[in-house]
């Protein structure tokens, strides 16, 4: 009797997992349209909600190419730097690092934004999360820019520089074959 109950429980759990996978991995045209429309909307809370949902996906439900293309387009059009930071966090979990590389490098190179270095720092982190060693030179240019413009980032300089430098060091170590 006990074994039978365990089997039934296992079957129920497997069914629930299957249903959740189907719900969260939905990349149908409807869900892609919803993502695009939400990111194009002026509704801050809706944007945050949908971006948090994408960010919190697990490894079994990677963010697909179509979603990444929508996110990249939204990143280019978005005016609010706080939303841009959320999009960059999501891009750091991309299933295809080559697809998002140029968009993240563009964020890193844009020193005219109002984020006090937050966008660039998060872009560095996303590139590190992706293991993108091709970004090392761009991160180095960002660090050089920071060192020469400390006065532009009053209040955030120490944190932005420290975390950006950490990303640079870790990616350089990866490129050089270190295990860390």
Folded structure, characterized:
This protein has 180 residues and is mostly helical. The chain folds into two domains: 27-95, no CATH class; 97-180, no CATH class. It is 72% helix and 0% strand. It is built from nine helices and no strands. It has helices spanning 2-24, 29-40, 44-55, 65-77, 81-91, 97-109, 118-130, 136-148, 157-175. Helix 8 (136-148) packs antiparallel against helix 9. The longest helix is centred in the first third of the chain and has 23 residues, at 2-24. The N and C termini lie far apart (50 Å). Mean pLDDT is 86; it is low at 14-26.
Number of helices: 9
Summarize the main sheet.
Answer: none
Summarize model confidence as the mean pLDDT.
Answer: 86
Helix content: over 70%
Number of strands: 0
Topology pattern, helix = H, strand = E: HHHHHHHHH
How large is the radius of gyration? 20 Å
Number of domains: 2
Classification by helices and strands: mainly alpha
Regions with little confidence, pLDDT below 50 for 5+ residues: 14-26
